Fold this sequence. Notes:
By secondary structure, the protein is α+β, with helices and mostly antiparallel strands. 44% of the residues lie in helices and 37% in strands.
Amino acid sequence: MDKTRRDGGYVLVYVVVVIVILCILVPAACSNSLQNLKAQQASVERMRQLYTAEGRIERFYAEIEAAALPERKDYPKEETAFNGAKGAFQEILDNADAGLLIKKNETWTKEDGKTIWHCVISAVSKEADVIVAADIRTDISVKIEPYWIDDEPNQEKLWSYKITSCTITYESYDISATAGNESEEVTP
């Protein structure tokens, strides 16, 4: 009997040591798991921000590409028809804005009786910590033609414009991220 009491004491010491070790290891393992979960949630949130910012740029691109400028008539001068075409495209840009910061760099050239409008649109989308900036080049071919009321040459001469082609391409596409608590003002 004496031997049983000594063995029972050792078992109790082993049980206490195991419980102490578990009390130390379990919180450490739980803390590590919690940190991994937080990092995973932050990664998912950053990806959501990225996709939202990219989606705004893509929607802007698609709306410009899909918007067809109608043929318009009844301009008294060639220059006013030309300005009418520019104004119609500007209206498309304004309607497709989607909350982006927009800056335009535009040039117009005349080639073979057609007016080609080269417009580079810098669009910046900021969603929390993610910034997506794209330079979108739009080449619009505008044909400005005279016509006469009632198709008689002696009548009043008016002008019309017609879009003959529209080509849109990306010139640059940049993605950046800021630290979560930094505030940064973004300009295109």
